[in-house]
Amino acid sequence: MFMAIHSQNKAAAAELPRIASINLCTDQLLVALADPTQILGLSPYARDAVRSWDAAKAAQFPPLSGGAEDVLIANPDVVVSGRFTKRATRELLKEKGFRVVEFDVARSLDDVKKHIRQMGELVRHPDRAAREISRLDAAVAHVREVASRKPYRVLAVSRRGWVAGSDSLTTSLLRTVGLSNAAGELGNRTGGLASLEAIVSLKPDFLLVSSSSDLTQDEGGAFLLHPALERFYPATKRIVIPEKLTACGGLTLIDALERLASELERVTR
Questions:
Q1: Which region holds residue 75: left if phi is over 0, alpha if psi is between -120 and 50, else beta?
Q2: Regarding the domain with residue range 15-130, which homologous superfamily does it belong to in the CATH classification?
Q3: CATH topology of domain 150-267
Q4: Average pLDDT of 193-222?
Q5: Same fold: 15-130 with 150-267
Q6: Cβ pair 161, 202 in contact under 8 A
Q7: How many CB atoms lie within 10 A of CB 194?
Q8: Which is a Pfam family this sequence falls into (predicted)?
Q9: How far is CA 30 from the centre of its chain?
Q10: How far apart are CA 239 and CA 152, in angstroms?
Q11: pLDDT grade, residue 7 (50/70/90)?
Q12: Contact 42, 21 (CB under 8 A)
């Protein structure tokens, strides 16, 4: 009986699709939901400690160059990519007969859940996808409870004064947990650069930033250290969530939401 079950398990594992990812965001979903033996390779940024959700975990899998050549050698059953991954690479792989599944940019929490389900179905582990969506919902509920004390206005600001627009994942997340993105008052749907004067004039309750460091390597990062911003928005008025937790809109949003809850607890004491 044991031998029969063991043989069945081996046969089932052999039937699972072997997948290569050529996009950082699909890397994240693939590693979280697939069996390790299904993963033939990840994008070159997966091992980048600055950009990757977990460079150490990604290092367990073969690195891909991002081009078509090593994907052709790996010969996967499926290639997963972003909609804006290099078009020439995607088209060449399609021409060679590979199944290429393209994931759109997530602009809402519903999009994130859709992508989790899509990858779960692709790797044939929909149960894992369902569990992760349940964890995501629980994290949202936790933040909503913390944020319910007051309808805070938050302004997400990054390098050179870039603010997220009304049609963005950041705005969707804030709205879902009961906060508002003050950038919507600037009338920009897709996001754009805001001046120091505009940011100060908006008078948001808090700034949402990706780093608490008082050091910067270039002028883009120096924007957030400008004396005017530091005067009105010291550390006690800054919510810090590392960009790599929110850049893809994948399962790292669970960690991002938990971080948001703890940061709200800190700045609203």
A1: left
A2: Nitrogenase molybdenum iron protein domain (3.40.50.1980)
A3: Rossmann fold (3.40.50)
A4: 79
A5: yes
A6: no
A7: 22
A8: Peripla_BP_2
A9: 13
A10: 12
A11: very low
A12: yes
Per-residue three-class SS string for the chain = CHHHHHHHHHHHHHHCCCEEECCHHHHHHHHHHCCHHHEEEECHHHHCCCCCCCHHHHCCCCECCCCCHHHHHHCCCEEEEECCCCHHHHHHHHHCCCEEEEECCCCCHHHHHHHHHHHHHHCCCHHHHHHHHHHHHHHHHHHHHHHCCCCCEEEEECHHHEECCCCCHHHHHHHHCCCEEHHHHHCCCCCEECCHHHHHHHCCCEEEECCCCCCCCCHHHHHHHCHHHHHHCCHHHEEECCHHHCCCCCCHHHHHHHHHHHHHHHHCC
pLDDT at 31: 96
Distance CA 44, CA 59 (A): 10
Q: Is the dihedral of CA 262, 58, 35, 90 positive or negative?
A: positive
What is the residue whose two structure tokens read 């990519």? 81
Its pTM stands at 0.88
